[in-house]
Structure formats: C-alpha cells, structure tokens
Design goal:
alpha/beta; Rossmann fold; seven-stranded parallel β-sheet; about 15% strand; globular
Length: about 260
C-alpha cells in the first residue's frame, strides 16, 4: 500500500458515528485536523457530536443516513463529494441482533448481516468511482477479532464479521491498482453500548477513546490489518490454527461454558 490520506487531501467519512467507537473515531480524526462527515441514523446525536468538535483542530459535519439503504447512501456520498472529496472512509456501522433459540437464523440474523456486510458494501459502492478518478483513496472496514472463528453467543455477529474481513481482502485485490488503500480494523472488546449488555467475560476490555487512538494510528501507519488489543488478537489467531477438538475445548474453558 502506498497512499495514506491526510486532512489536506479531503475530508473523512465515518459511518456508525452516533455512538461507540465510530463516535470516538470521528472525534479523534477531528482532533487530527480532518473535516469529518459523520453518518448514522440518529441525527440529533450527530448534531451533538458536531458541537463537541468545535474546539478541535478539525470539524465534524452531521450527515445523517442509513447504511442499509443503498440508494440513499449513494446519494449522501455524492452530496458529500460536492462539498469536499472523501480522502478517507471508515466504514464502521455495525451491530448484533440476536434470535431466540426457537427462531435461530431469523430476523436478528438477517438484520446483523444486512448491517455488518451489506451495509459495508453499500458504503464502498459510491466511493469507488470518485476515488478511482482521483487515483487515490483510503477505505477502512471495521471487522472484529470475532471474525477469526466461531464463538459462543455470536452466532450471527462472528460470521458477519468474518464476511467483512473477507470482503476487505477481496476489495484490496480489486482496487490496489487505482492507488486506493484498503484496511481492515479488527478490534477486541471495547467498552461501548454494544458490549454493555454482554453477560460473559470480556478479556482485555479497552476504553473506547484508547481504541479510537489505536485505530487512527493504524490509518496513518498503514498495513492491511489494524488489530487491538494485540494480546487478544494474537491469542484468537493462534487458537484458530488448532485442530477443532482443541479449539472447542479451549473456547469452552475460556468462556466458562
């Protein structure tokens, strides 16, 4: 990879910016001098976020939208591009929706994949043509260390993040000849509204501001994968090299099942 975005090249676009790591990343990028267009469905939260950034080196502009709505998201990106070129996109919007035992693979499963996989593709789609025309761009797709392998309590979330990781790998092959940098961000457990409801152990839990700094440092440093905390990431990577009987045994022990 050769291209690294900078505030002088254009703006940054962050999806899922109304809460959690997306919100923290939008603020961190604004601290680093970017004009950040922040997208989420909750317009009021985005306006509050924009107000919080007024004392920072850069700025945040509320750009409400739903990543699941492909046509509306394309129109939103087109509108942002009329104001400033998008040099950096952090496609972060994601979530986990659970089904009951009796409804396995139902509405929660479909909503999780629609947001975590199709929503990412919907964000990539309108970026490719203008970035190709400029012969530069940087796209970061937020996956998860949960995507390294199947996990208890993540029957939709883990496979959706595995798909996001695979999507990022394939996208890199597609666009690297156009000087478009693709990265995948694989965080572990971050203290956010998404994890607040977890009733199981969350090893190496990170605070959201620290995670946002790690992510933004990775955008500047480069490399295909940005992972944190590294101890958890490498542990899960190593586990997935084991034969399945050993993997199942260790995951059961680690999760207390």
């Amino acid at each position: 990879m050769t291209y690294r975005a900078s505030p002088g090249d254009g703006c940054a676009w962050v999806t899922g910016a109304s809460s959690g790591i997306g919100r923290a990343v939008a603020l961190e990028l604004a601290r680093r001098g970017y004009q950040v267009f922040a997208t989420a469905r909750r317009a009021a939260e985005l306006e509050t976020l924009a107000a919080q950034a007024k004392a920072l080196a850069g700025s945040i502009v509320a750009a409400p939208g739903d990543v699941v709505d492909r046509d509306a998201l394309a129109a939103l990106v087109s509108d942002i591009e009329t104001k400033r070129p998008i040099a950096l996109a952090v496609l972060n919007a994601g979530g986990a929706f659970r089904d009951s035992f009796e409804e396995f693979g139902g509405d929660g499963f479909q909503r999780t994949f629609a947001l975590n996989v199709q929503g990412v593709a919907n964000g990539i789609h309108p970026l490719l043509t203008p970035m190709r025309a400029r012969n530069r761009g940087q796209i970061a797709i937020v996956g998860s260390v949960a995507g390294y392998g199947g996990l208890p309590n993540a029957y939709a979330y883990a496979p959706s993040k595995a798909a996001a990781i695979s999507l990022a790998v394939g996208l890199r092959f597609l666009v690297e000849r156009f000087n478009i940098t693709v990265q995948v961000v694989n965080p572990g457990y971050i203290r956010t509204p998404l994890t607040d409801g977890n009733a199981y152990p969350m090893p190496f839990l990170m605070e959201v501001d620290a995670a946002a700094r790690r992510l933004c440092d990775g955008l500047t440093r480069g490399g295909f994968e940005i992972r944190f905390p590294r101890r958890l990431a490498w542990f899960l990577r190593a586990l997935n090299l084991l034969p399945y009987p050993a993997y199942f045994w260790l995951i059961k022990r680690a999760s207390g099942r």
